[in-house]
Amino acid sequence: MTAAQRPVSYEAAGVDIAAGERAVELMKASLAKARRPEVVEDASGFAGLFDASALLRYRRPLLATSTDGVGTKVDLARRLGVYDTIGRDLVAMVVDDLAVCGAEPLFMTDYIACGKVVPERIATIVSGIAEGCALAGCALVGGETAEHPGLLEPDEFDLAGAATGVVEADEMLGPDRVRPGDAVLAMASSGIHSNGYSLVRHVLRISGLELDGEVAELGRPLGEELLTPTRIYARDCLALARAGGVRAFAHITGGGLAANLARSLPGGVDAHLRRSSWTPPPIFTVLQEHGKIPQPEMDKTFNLGVGMVAVVAPDAADAALRLLQERGVPAWVLGEITTGTGAVHLV
């Protein structure tokens, strides 16, 4: 029978409905660990339900929402065949943006597009998302897996997610609270996190570095280092906010330290940050040296070891550092706020 004579079907077009159903069955166990008591079951499975009466304890609840993806880090996960950490990256990118304004992440949904549904691979990705949600205290209430044959190769995939959080209106953090004299605290990143991977992949192409090659400075294979999951700060930021004295946060993602911190400053102040206060993790030196990347390009592309910044009242800095230490988050005084024009000076 020729191709023209074969029966026309969705499966013949490249979409395997049975594989999608199998993936849903495999991921059910993972979803159980990413729940909150406010989640309400929808028997049809068409929507995720969240009991909004939980918001009645707020005087004026503001809902916050954020959406993001993992970028080209997914290409390295695909090439290495490692799918259990990329979901944590997704959660971190979304919920830590919510935490910047002081919002508690409530629930999240995900979207996975792939060239071919391999149930075990999809279930492994979702298990990472569920693990990330559990770390963030956020419920994973639903998602979608879409098969795109002909648009994506069978082993290619991409993922994105969106989350909703809540913050009390008069407790919302942001630039309007920042004052001259405030301390700027850095929270260590776990590595590159999920930004700058297009430059990482370019360095791999031009340098001869191999993903499975051991790198002496790292003490492990390069690919393993590059897939280190993004640190999730949401609960740590909320704990700091509850302790008092926090003015603002800045999630250090694309654009680097200076550009992201500037978003959390009002026009009448500057932030003066000291490079001498920390040593970037070795992975950044490896990439810079092998790629011959100028320092300004490093500064505007990578987090360089600082994943989240907190601006706090000067008399709250010591207590904030102690709290972060107790929570297992390496942190230090990065600089201070002075009168200025909204600029960030990294010297």
TrEMBL record:
Domain PurM-like C-terminal positions: 179-342
Family in the record: Belongs to the AIR synthase family.
Record pathway: Purine metabolism; IMP biosynthesis via de novo pathway; 5-amino-1-(5-phospho-D-ribosyl)imidazole from N(2)-formyl-N(1)-(5-phospho-D-ribosyl)glycinamide: step 2/2
Primary location: cytoplasm
InterPro entries: PurM-like_C_dom (IPR010918), PurM-like_C_sf (IPR036676), PurM-like_N (IPR016188), PurM-like_N_sf (IPR036921), PurM_cligase (IPR004733)
Protein name in the entry: Phosphoribosylformylglycinamidine cyclo-ligase
Gene Ontology annotations for the cellular component aspect, listed alphabetically: cytosol
SUPFAM superfamilies: PurM C-terminal domain-like, PurM N-terminal domain-like
GO annotation, biological process: 'de novo' IMP biosynthetic process; adenine biosynthetic process
Bilayer-crossing regions: none
Reaction it catalyzes: 2-formamido-N(1)-(5-O-phospho-beta-D-ribosyl)acetamidine + ATP = 5-amino-1-(5-phospho-beta-D-ribosyl)imidazole + ADP + phosphate + H(+)
Subcellular location(s) per record: Cytoplasm
GO MF term set: ATP binding; phosphoribosylamine-glycine ligase activity; phosphoribosylformylglycinamidine cyclo-ligase activity
Domain PurM-like N-terminal positions: 54-167
Gene of this entry: purM
